[in-house]
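[Amino acid chain]
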Amino acid sequence: MLHESKSKQEIVAINPLDCRIYTLLKDIAKPMFAFQNDNMEMYTLEKDLKVFGVEVENFPEGIGDAFDKLVNMISGEVDRSYFGISEMTDKGFSYKAVAEEKYDGETENYNCKRYIIEKGEYLTVRLLDWRKKTDSIKYLFSEICQNAKIDKTKPCVEWYKNDDEMLCMVRIDATKE
């Protein structure tokens, strides 16, 4: 479950970043590569990661717009990770476009909601050249979610490490290790 902070303040951002995030393609393409379970790796997130951002209102078509909105509000810092967080809620499917919080109070400065990506062990699959393979992301998560070790109560996380590399991440249930 994601943790959310409701405190808000407004500020106008300058120097928008070059948008590194994708617009999801329609659900008509098949994966561009064969997925193999041996591509899965363990990743340890050593501490909780504070992130902030916006919820996508029209999934999946609105993902690109949500990341554009987020990137345009943040100052010109380029040394920042971006994430997509998806989960099932009582209201249905939820997707959030979020960025790593760089300093205390940044979330409130941008009038956004804060979320926490919880520390712990994650089962991951690395996707290179992800911009050309966005239609494959759902298949990667589908394969990861077949693993008996994952915690199905936790959200799926897309970590956009840079313009080329992203990680699909699902938290491991510590009681199943």
